[in-house]
Amino acid sequence: MAITPDEIKAIGRVIKRHTEGVAEHLLDLLSNMERVLAEQRERLNKLERSHGSRLAELENEVRIGNALRALEARVGELEQRGEAADD
């Protein structure tokens, strides 16, 4: 039983059709992955922006705290001088 040229052509058409179907499926998967990646990138950007703002707030709080401690230390020095002058 030899395979006829028509059967070879039919097999070729089936293989081509399946190959095209697989390629279309892979392109769909790639498109979905690109969409998900874009969504995740946007979420990451939003998180970076919000945390960046919070980080700036925390840095300001630290600066204010440092300034208050320096001011308290200076007030303490002046109070000590005032007490020494009173003696």
Detailed description of the structure:
This protein is an all-alpha fold. It has a domain at 47-87. It contains one helix and no strands. The protein has one helix at 5-86. The chain starts with a helix and ends with a helix. The mean pLDDT is 91.
Query: What coarse outline follows from CA principal-axis ratios?
Result: rod-shaped
SS content category: mainly alpha
| Nearest-integer average pLDDT | 91
Strand content: under 5%
Largest sheet, strands/sense/barrel: none
Characteristic terms for this protein:
87 residues; mainly alpha; rod-shaped
Provide a quick synopsis of the model.
It contains one helix and no strands. The protein has 87 residues and is mainly alpha-helical. It is rod-shaped, with a radius of gyration of 37 Å.
Topology:
Elements: H1 5-86
